[in-house]
Specification:
Structural class: mainly alpha
Helix content: 55-70%
Radius of gyration: 21 Å
Shape: elongated
Order of helices and strands: HHHHHHHH
Number of strands: 0
Number of domains: 2
Number of helices: 8
Length: 151
């Protein structure tokens, strides 16, 4: 009995972005040929994955540099809250105010309440949320986040 073929997995966004131009460079490629090339280069990806990549190629070509190592992008649940919090953090940065993790979480909760988010929809604003927020915002906060923030 032949051995089972190696399972294919998800590609990271960088690999998906790299796959998009292949079809345009060689318009005569079939999805099977593109899948074979992806299998050679990334050691994964079947025709179904290639089909999805080609369908959503505009999305993958617009992926930010910071997100290239992720497998998928997520949209914000409350973008208005995130925007207000970002403005507040930048304001604090300009005034050289030291921010703690608890202060950031409390301010986030306050912005959510002020923007009309119901209590049952409110995020937990846990330490995990704070770490994710720091990681995603590090790009524009730069050195400030690592040095002056005690979060």
């Amino acid at each position: 009995m032949p051995s089972r073929p190696k399972a294919t997995g998800n590609l990271i966004l960088e690999q998906k972005k790299k796959t998009c131009p292949w079809n345009e460079e060689h318009g005569a490629f079939t999805q099977l040929q593109l899948a074979a090339r992806a299998m050679r280069e990334f050691n994964r990806a079947g025709p179904g994955i290639i089909s999805g990549i080609l369908r959503d190629r505009k999305t993958y070509l617009l992926v930010k540099e910071a997100d290239l190592k992720c497998k998928r992008t997520r949209s914000l649940v409350f973008p208005a809250v995130d925007e207000e919090l970002a403005k507040w953090v930048l304001h604090c940065q300009s005034k050289h105010v030291m921010l703690s993790g608890d202060l950031i979480k409390a301010k986030s909760k306050r912005f959510a309440t002020l923007s009309g988010v119901q209590n049952d929809q409110l995020l937990s604003f846990s330490n995990g949320w704070l770490q994710t927020y720091e990681r995603t915002r590090r790009e524009w906060l730069g050195e400030y986040w690592g040095i002056t923030c005690a979060a």
